[in-house]
Amino acid sequence: MKLIDVLEKQMRKRAFRPIKNYIEEGQATIKALPESPEFGFFTWFRIFRENNIKVKPKISFKAMPYAIRAILGIRKSFKNLKNNPKNPRTTITPEGIYEFEEYAKSIGVDKIGYIKLTPELILEHQELIYDNVIVFIKEMDKNLMALAPHKKTMVMIMKTYYQMGKQANKLSKYLRKKGFSVHAGPALAGLSLYPVLAQRANLGAIGRHGLLITLEFGPRQRIAVIYTNITNLPIAQSNTYGWISEFCKTCVSCMEACPTNAIYETPIQKAHGRLTHIDVGECAKGFLNYGCSICIKECTFNKNPPEKMRRIAERQWKSYKTNLNY
Ligand code: SF4
Ligand code: SF4
């Protein structure tokens, strides 16, 4: 058996067992649709296997402990489902939201949004138990990102994944203590399309490179979520960052910088209007160089201060307003 097969088998066995293994028999789930996107984490295994990619990966062994802890965080998020209350509360007060957000900030969360999950955003073959979603982001270190691709950048990214898994599990514990049912969705290997959820939750907009761009950090953040039974979250009603996507139509910096030409000039439209921005197979080749991340480093929104970008946007698209879905 090849190393890649062993790795995938262990991942599926230890961290990504179907949710059915952790919930009560007969508990309702929301299933992915047949046309839902492929589960990103395993797409890479498939691509490497199908294309027999033999590039020797450049990795940092210092990133490994964080990667392992991030994977253990995913496992914990499933195992803790058994701690959901038997008779959970389903509504939260504005004060409850305020206190939750204050707690989130105190453990290092940078920005929070709320949105409803729709089944086409659940990754293929996956099931989830709640469709109310708390989306949150955490900034990645600017100086270390500026080195990309570099072993230090790779360590920083893995550390961020680990920290966000910890945050997702801590926030879930907090909400369970308040009487709610939750399912933590760590940043690494999410079960739904996080950038789209974040865009719909009005945290930012998806750029040409397919990553979420926020005014605060550009593309330099990771996303995690919490699925919950709370039915009255302050769901975002519209997206006010349409100008970011418009700006991307005038800029090709990420495309030109990508070492494997993985970023499409025009995104490919899939079922339900979903857009695919990159060729995952080509990106996978670049990623083997310490996780690449050149598209994050070179993005105009990373290279310029947020206020400058806002001024440019206001000048060019003063009256521009749109509701973004994808
Ligand atoms: S991570 Fe690297 S290879 Fe992948 S899209 Fe970005 S620049 Fe291209
Ligand atoms: S580099 Fe330019 S085109 Fe690419 S995502 Fe950033 S702003 Fe958009």
Number of spatially distinct domains: 1
> Can you count the helices?
13
How is the biggest beta sheet arranged? Answer: 4 strands, antiparallel
Q: Flag low-confidence runs.
A: none
The ligands bound in this entry are:
iron/sulfur cluster
Strand order of the largest sheet: 2-4-8-5
Tell me about this structure.
It is a single chain. The strands form four sheets. The protein has a four-stranded antiparallel β-sheet with strand order 2-4-8-5, sandwiched between helices. The longest helix has 27 residues, at 151-177. It has one domain. Helix 3 (64-79) runs parallel beside helix 6 (151-177). The chain has helices spanning 3-14, 40-51, 64-79, 94-106, 142-145, 151-177, 194-200, 242-248, 253-257, 280-287, 294-298, 300-303, 306-316, and strands at 30-31, 111-116, 127-128, 132-139, 182-185, 205-206, 212-213, 221-228, 263-269, 275-278. It has 13 helices and ten strands. Helix content is 40%, strand content 14%. Strand 6 (205-206) and strand 7 (212-213) form a beta hairpin. The mean pLDDT is 90. With 326 residues, the protein is α+β, with helices and mostly antiparallel strands. It binds iron/sulfur cluster (2 copies). The site of one iron/sulfur cluster has 14 residues, from helix 10 and helix 11.
Question: Could you name the key traits of this structure?
Answer:
single chain, 326 residues, alpha+beta, 4-stranded antiparallel beta sheet, two-stranded antiparallel sheet, 10 strands, globular, binds iron/sulfur cluster
